[in-house]
Structures are given as structure tokens and as C-alpha cells.
Amino acid sequence: MANPSAVCNGHLHHHHQKQNNLLKSGIYKKNGITKGIKKNGISNGTLYKKKFVEHFEQAPMYVAVFTFLGFGVGTIFGYLRDFMRAWGLEKRNVATEREQQKDFVPLYQDFENFYTRNLYMRIRDNWNRPICSVPGPQFDLMERVTDDYNWTFRFTGRIIKNVINMGSYNYLGFAETDVNALKTVTIELQKYGTGICSTRQEMGTLDKHVELEKLVAKFLGVEDAMVFGMGFATNSMNIPALVGKGCLILSDELNHTSLVLGARLSGATIRIFKHNNIQSLEKLLRDAIIYGQPRSRRAWRKIIILVEGIYSMEGSIVRLPEIVSLKKKYKAYLYLDEAHSIGAVGATGRGVVEYFGMSPDDVDVLMGTFTKSFGAAGGYIAGKKDLVDFLRTHSHSAVYATSMCPPVAEQIIRAMKCVMGLDGTTQGLQRVRQLGKNTRYFRRRLHEMGFIIYGNDDSPVVPLLLYMPGKIGAFARRMLEKNIGVVVVGFPATPITESRARFCVSAAHTREMLDTVLSALDELGDFLHLKYSRYSKSSHPELYEETRLELED
């Protein structure tokens, strides 16, 4: 990598432009770039080839007030219950320190434990629900009840049939049990068995892995790829191999925990930029170039930007064209996590790189998982052959983790060939297009009903804002009564005032299924008073009043 400090000696030409609330072109909600960049000697006119529309509407002030009030009341009653438990007036169910260790530093964090036992426990029945079928567009659910306010559960033996699945990441519908579709997977299971019992560097590399890696590289349009048996570990175990002490990581504030863990394990310096905020990122890049490392002021060994394609809690899509422009300007590296975007966006399902009409060469490290669009398990790292060869010998996953099992590899091959049309059909392309249609239809209807939903219009991850803690449990329970399975999320997984339900749209959802869900949401939105939308603009603040971005290669 070229010395990043060399950039500060050049002439930095900034194109200043006052912010608009929304550009007429529809490209941005606030921070806009109207100048174009030149690529291969041709001016593109703008950084975006089509409208880029995202929604982060602000709720009325009273919603925030009642949300904080709800948490406040819950906290007061929590302390009251703790007092009653301490005096033996209420049974203590939570784990506590042994009497012999009363003078030790507590093993359990007090406030985290307080939140779990007094707030989370009241609505715990809405998570970890056991299903007993394939997680397709519908699934079967094992009914369970509690006799002690969610401290323990017991199964009734009843199976709730045909629950509409709005929570699984089955974007292209490849989580299926069709015998004909899984015929090749069955053959590989009989040939190789279920496990390998070795790492990739020992006896764990099979011809199936080689075949899959060649197919992934071809699918993405890059030189080489390497696959791993676990999606989470693809990030957490490979980032430490790429950066270390003396390196700088610039990470989006809403990056997935696997990226956060990988960054922390690397030993590199980590700095956070505001979510999808180009001004915030550029400020960090400029400061890194100008000031270098703390105390020594030496240039950073590497600067790497960590972003996701689709953010799984916000439903937003990374502003890839602008970030690539910054990457080139400041000579940084770019690590792109396409866990939720590969297969889900782009004309042929090749992720956000294709979605923005860009070249895979613009991204230094392409990462993705097979756990979502491909109905399997594991992940990949792809890019230049030199990068992949380096990871084959230095990746902790390659050295220590057990290889991907052959039937899973075959499932990925089957699904990817279908998407690429190598199976001799257009079924894969039809799935990608159907996912896009379902996503836009579902989002448009929710907007029309008056719900506040976050994210990009083309993102199949659809967060619907609930806000108040008391409505989290009520929403999920009422939806299940209508035979609809949903995922609800609250603090600390989200900001304290932004509890939400997160829907994941699938190509396997029929229009009838979506209409059933929408009808239930319309009714429940009136009952729980969830229709807060006033069609206002984004509530996500921008860091600066002006846009500053170098627009030349």
C-alpha cells in the first residue's frame, strides 16, 4: 500500500456545496454530491446511476417522552422487586454469587443483570421460540407456556401449523425441502458423510471446497475466493490476519458484532464514524493522514474501512460509490461485508457492487455469508489472488477451524448455480426479481398505512418502529395469534428509544402471504397506535453543514 501520508502533500480540491434537505435528483436525503467522477476517462455525471432513497423518519416528540417514561416506570418497579427479593418477599430466580464469594468482585454485572431479570424477562417469551420445520415462507412452531412469568417454559405438545415466516433471512427461498431440489445434496451426503474432522490446512480440503471457491470467484467476478464453515468467524477470525498494531480501522457505528469483534481482536486502533455518513468518514480519514499515529505521529501502516452492504437492523444500504471515492482519494483499503446483500440486491443477485454498477476491483476485500440468500452455512472472503493466498496461510479459521461439511458446500453450489443460470434454467433470476418486487410492494404498503419504517426502498430488511417497551411484547404476541411469526428487537440491540420489529422479505413469499401480513399489521397498528408517520425527513443528523468530497480519481 502506498504511504497514506503522501496524500497530505498533494492539493486537496474540495467542492463545497450547501446541504439541501432532499436533492431534486432524489439521490440523497441530506448529504449530496452533485459533481461526477471520471472512470476510464468517461464522466458519469453523478456518483449514482439511479435514485438512492432511504427513510429514517423522526417520530413525534411525545413518542420519545412516553418511551423514556416506560423505561423509567419499568426501572422503578424493577428496584422495588429487587427490594422484595432481598427481603424474601419474592422468590429469587436469577443467578447470584455464592455466599463464600460475597467479598469477591461480582462475576455478574449488576445493571446488565438488573435489566435482564426485571425488563427483558417480562417479554422473554417472544424470543428463542422453537420451530419444528424448514424455515421457509411458512413454518411450524412448538407451543410453549410459562407458569412463572417467563422464568421457565413448558411445552404443551401442540404444534402451531403454517405460521407465516417474516423473520428468517431466507431471501431467495433456498431454505427448502423439495426432494428434487436437494437431490445433489443427498448424493454428496451419501458420498462424503456429514463432517470432515479436520482443518483446511491439514486433511480438511476436499474437491468440493475447491469447486465452491472457483464458483464463488466466478460469481463475484474476482480472481480468487476462500470459504469458511462459519459466517461469524469469517469476519472475526480474518480481520486480525489483515491488520494489527500500527494499523487504523475506520468502522461504521452500526457494524455487525462479528466485525466489531474482529477489529478488537486485531489490536489495531479503532475509530468509529457515523452511520453511512460520508462527512464523518472523510474527517477521520483526513485526520489520520495529517496527524498519523498518536504520540509518535508516524504514518499508519494501513488504513482500512469496514462497512456492510445492507445493515441488518436499519435496512439501509451502504453508500458505496462515495466510500470508494474516498478510499481512492486517501489511499485506504475497503472491507465490505455483504452478509445480507449478496443474492438479495443487484440485477442478478451479485450484491451492492452490482447494485451500484461498480467493479469488484473497487473493493479490496469482499466478504459474504451463505447463511441467508443461499440457505446454507458459512462465509467467504474474495478478491485478488494475493489476498486469498495470504489468508490461506494466516487466517485463524483456516488454521484452527473445522472445514465446511460437504453437504453444506453442495447446497451452496446448487443455489449459486441456480442464481447464475448454470443449472440451465432462469429460476434463480426469477427469484432475485421476485424478491425485489416483494420488497418494494411490502415497503410501499407499510408507508401508505402510516408506519415509520427505516432503510432503503430496495432493502429486504424492513424495520418497523415500535418505540415503547411495552409494545414490543404486545406486538409479537398479537402477531403470533394471527399465525404470523415476527422478530422484535429492543435495547441494548437498538438505541433505547428505537425498539422495532424487523421483517425479512423473501422471494418465496406469495402476494397472498404478504397481504395477510399487511392486513394484520394494519389492524394491529390501529390497536397499538403504531402509525406515527408524518412523512418527515430523516432524523439522522449530518456532521457538517457542507459536503466535502474529492471527486476525481
TrEMBL record:
The keyword Transmembrane applies. Keywords: Acyltransferase, Endoplasmic reticulum, Lipid metabolism, Membrane, Pyridoxal phosphate, Sphingolipid metabolism, Transferase, Transmembrane, Transmembrane helix. Its EC number is 2.3.1.50. Pathway: Lipid metabolism; sphingolipid metabolism; Sphingolipid metabolism. The chain crosses the membrane at residues 59-80. The keyword Ligase does not apply. GO terms for molecular function: pyridoxal phosphate binding; serine C-palmitoyltransferase activity. It is found in: Endoplasmic reticulum membrane. Residues 161-521 form the Aminotransferase class I/classII large domain. It is an enzyme of class 2 (transferase). It is a single-pass membrane protein. GO terms for cellular component: endoplasmic reticulum membrane; serine palmitoyltransferase complex. One of its GO terms (biological process) is ceramide biosynthetic process. Its cofactor is pyridoxal 5'-phosphate. Signal peptide: none annotated. Belongs to the class-II pyridoxal-phosphate-dependent aminotransferase family. This is serine C-palmitoyltransferase. It comes from Dromas ardeola. The gene is Sptlc3.
